Amino acid sequence: VYSGNSFRLNTKYYLSKKYSFYYIQVGLMYKSLHYDTAFFQDGARASDTRSFSRSNEKANLLGTDLITGLELVIGKLFVIDCFTGIGYRFKDRNYTTYYSTGGYGSQYPKVPLGDFNINYNYISFTLGLRMGFCYTKK
Fold it and tell me: Strand ranges (DSSP E) for 15-113?
């Protein structure tokens, strides 16, 4: 449902000159997210009395990561990067619900109307594998 932009700034430090494939990386990230006039439906079966709502949302996500990895270059042309890490995220959500049905006689409560702000923090874990072609000077 979300659309938006993402920006990342990463710096990588190789732990030794002799074994230049072990590294530590520190990263910062920012995401700007939004959706306009999205329609939501609660209710899993056709026999359920459903709840419907429409809303808009704008959100910002800030974060930082600490990643360690192993980068292998094969034949000065192909690279394999295995990495793992931990990060911190802060998300700020601002949304408006301007239409809602349900509530009385429904097993799903009516979504409240109005403007709302929700902030939350969480820890993120990273485990990854990157593969691709690279260019190295001779």
Answer: 22-42, 51-74, 78-100
